[in-house]
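Duplicate of #3305? Posting structure anyway:
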């Protein structure tokens, strides 16, 4: 079964396009006259589009001339007959074009509105991006279903989807056929599949793993670490440490020095098995007794992230979800970002808004913490001039946070 995250507009070949959705998946069940196509993740796909999942399911039925059925309580959506996943994905593109994308700006940040004019009713796409209101083709059979099952207006919270721009948004309004708002609409955790996967994997970072049984785990002993430190004199290859409660900056034998060096030595040796590597990193920090220290987050950010940080944040997200547990930890993570883009890779300065958005999406940063950081220059992690440059670069993201707050306040009035 295929899985993954794709652009809502699949004709847009941009990995930083901010409107994303899960790739539609299918499962064939039954045989003979009872054969049917189940769409396991239809609820997630529809949530990304801010449309009731019954709408695209019914659209498939209209286009294929097939019966459809929905069990909203159990999130089970079915199209009768055996249908190829690629065919349904093409049809979903058609649904998005006809019932989601703004006709004017092609942005999916719309909501459906039913306008009554005398005895006639029209379905309008109200675009939150450009402000245009464009009608849908009322000749399509789905419009009859929508009019009989109109979207319910629910109170929206701030959304956390999209990584392409600093002022990222979501596809669509907040319409749903259910009376209850989705978690994302209540300002709670996003239902984005990547976020759920990262949080689930973070829970797996514990001692009860096969890691302890593997031969290479024995090399994490203090004796082995000391041997590696002696063999690699000269410090931590660009990983500088700020003052903290345990170990000095210049002491490679401090717990933080050992952790940073170990991560750098092993970072490129896990051959694609990222999860096992992250478990190993956490176990190493635990062996050193610093897995809960905020300074460990600073060290990990510096040792793990490179100039490919935007692709690395989702990969290493489970580890940071496990280790970032307080405001201090968040500030340490921001300190690591500050050093990464301010000292190690200054060419990444323009990407600061995207980096912050990616971390914010994974709930690694809270709005209050990142806003306070972005508006107060500090010499704690870099020199004052570098600190100013990084915070200046973060302004588009901070502006997005402020505007999103204003929108949320307007919705509550």
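Output from current build:
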């Amino acid at each position: 079964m295929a899985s993954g995250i794709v652009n809502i507009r699949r004709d847009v070949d941009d990995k930083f396009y901010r409107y994303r959705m899960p790739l539609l998946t299918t499962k064939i069940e039954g045989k003979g006259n009872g054969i049917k196509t189940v769409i396991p993740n239809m609820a997630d796909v529809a949530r990304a589009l801010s449309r009731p999942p019954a709408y695209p399911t019914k659209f498939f039925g209209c286009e294929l001339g097939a019966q459809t059925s929905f069990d909203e309580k159990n999130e089970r959506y079915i199209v009768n007959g055996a249908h190829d996943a690629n065919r349904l994905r093409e049809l979903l593109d058609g649904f998005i074009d006809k019932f989601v994308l703004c006709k004017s700006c092609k942005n999916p940040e719309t909501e459906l509105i039913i306008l009554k004019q005398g005895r006639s009713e029209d379905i309008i796409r109200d675009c939150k991006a450009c402000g245009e209101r464009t009608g849908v083709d009322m000749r399509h059979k789905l419009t009859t279903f929508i009019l009989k099952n109109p979207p319910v207006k629910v109170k929206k919270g701030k959304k956390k989807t999209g990584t392409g721009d600093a002022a990222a948004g979501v596809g669509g309004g907040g319409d749903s056929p259910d009376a209850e708002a989705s978690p994302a609409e209540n300002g709670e955790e996003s239902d984005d599949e990547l976020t759920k996967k990262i949080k689930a994997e973070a829970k797996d970072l514990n001692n009860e793993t096969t890691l302890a049984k593997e031969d290479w785990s024995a090399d994490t002993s203090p004796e082995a670490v000391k041997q590696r430190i002696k063999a690699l004199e000269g410090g931590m290859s660009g990983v500088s440490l700020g003052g903290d409660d345990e170990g000095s900056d210049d002491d490679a034998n401090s717990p933080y020095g050992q952790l940073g060096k170990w991560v750098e030595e092993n970072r490129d040796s896990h051959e694609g098995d990222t999860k096992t590597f992250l478990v190993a990193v956490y176990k190493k920090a635990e062996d050193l007794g610093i897995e809960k220290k905020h300074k460990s987050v600073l060290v990990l950010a510096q040792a793990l992230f490179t100039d490919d940080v935007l692709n690395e944040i989702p990969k290493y997200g489970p580890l940071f979800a496990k280790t970032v547990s307080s405001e201090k930890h968040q500030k340490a993570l921001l300190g690591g970002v500050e050093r990464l883009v301010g000292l190690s890779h200054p060419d990444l300065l323009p990407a600061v808004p995207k980096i912050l958005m990616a971390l914010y999406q994974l709930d690694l940063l809270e709005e209050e913490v990142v806003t306070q950081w972005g508006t107060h220059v500090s010499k704690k992690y870099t020199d004052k001039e570098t600190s100013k440059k990084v915070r200046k670069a973060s302004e588009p993201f901070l502006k997005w946070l402020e505007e999103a707050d204003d929108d949320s306040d307007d919705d509550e009035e």
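Confirmed duplicate; merging threads. The beta strands are 5-7, 20-22, 27-29, 36-38, 68-71, 76-80, 110-117, 120-127, 133-135. Residues 374 and 392 are 8 Å apart (CA to CA).
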